[in-house]
Design the sequence.
């Protein structure tokens, strides 16, 4: 590649990065506003794993902090789980350059996971629970009012299908979550952002990515299958992923089958309700159809009431 071509590529990358940053800022800003994620005086603990998502989250939050109409503080926290070969110097060096407050924690969850999980089994579930417990406790210790995690829209949708297909539950990752004990508030500022945008942004920004190799970069097969399914849908039917996420924001308990979410047992018709059938019928085109229930023929005219032409009762 010639020098001219290299320069042109650099310019294209800068332009693309600027567009992505603007899009991510807008999406994160909307998510924060829609779910009241960050309030005046908050101390937001950004959990930094070393992956693309948490890097992007921290980067965008720092940029929004400078423009926000409210005042809040950010502290980055990384948990060193003592995986063999973990590059301990990478995150401190990166955070030093940013000039923000941060904490590097150490807890040997690696040994616990390897001891409890049989060889060949997925370690992700136990690993995440141990990590979450440690971070929750530390958030209370430093007085953090919000715990920010780097889960994005794809994670949220994938989790919905994982729970549907393998757990029999309509459950996902909410953009904002109060812990079971009520002590911690978890937020997901990237809830409106696509993984592919985050991945491209992280590449252009050249974040020092640290891969999770606790289990030799073990792939969660179930989540991988869901991710492949959604990726195929996205290619075959552009816009379907957006529609799924929109549907998750527009649930109707009375139109479902969950008896815990809607009181079907007490549901009764109102015998005194005004007759509204004629109003509905006036919007329909004129046509004839069979009235199966009464074995009769009905002439439906859009301009007038239904006239029962023939009725038969055996």
Sequence:
């Amino acid at each position: 590649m010639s020098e001219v071509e290299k320069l042109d590529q650099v310019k294209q990358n800068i332009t693309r990065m600027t567009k992505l940053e603007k899009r991510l800022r807008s999406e994160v800003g909307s998510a924060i506003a829609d779910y009241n994620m960050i309030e005046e005086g908050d101390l937001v603990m950004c959990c930094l794993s070393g992956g693309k998502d948490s890097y992007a989250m921290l980067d965008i939050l720092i940029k929004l902090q400078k423009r926000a109409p409210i005042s809040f503080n950010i502290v980055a926290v990384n948990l060193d789980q003592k995986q063999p070969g973990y590059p301990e110097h990478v995150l401190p060096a990166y955070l030093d350059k940013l000039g923000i407050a941060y904490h590097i924690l150490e807890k040997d969850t690696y040994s616990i996971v390897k001891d409890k999980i049989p060889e060949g089994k997925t370690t992700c579930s136990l690993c995440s629970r141990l990590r979450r417990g440690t971070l929750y406790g530390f958030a209370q210790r430093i007085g953090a009012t919000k715990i920010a995690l780097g889960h994005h829209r794809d994670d949220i949708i994938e989790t919905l299908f994982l729970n549907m297909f393998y757990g029999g539950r309509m459950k996902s990752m909410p953009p904002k979550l109060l812990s079971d004990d009520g002590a911690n508030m978890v937020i997901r500022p990237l809830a409106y952002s696509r993984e592919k945008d985050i991945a491209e942004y992280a590449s252009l920004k050249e974040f020092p990515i640290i891969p999770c190799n606790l289990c030799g970069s073990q792939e969660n097969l179930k989540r991988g299958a869901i991710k492949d399914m959604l990726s195929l849908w996205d290619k075959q039917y552009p816009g379907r992923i957006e529609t799924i996420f929109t549907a998750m924001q527009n649930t109707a308990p009375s139109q479902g089958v969950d008896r815990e979410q809607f009181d079907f047992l007490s549901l009764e018709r109102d015998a005194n309700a005004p007759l509204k059938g004629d109003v509905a019928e006036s919007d329909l085109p004129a046509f004839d159809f069979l009235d199966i229930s009464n074995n009769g023929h009905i002439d439906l005219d859009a301009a007038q009431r239904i006239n029962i032409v023939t009725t038969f009762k055996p």
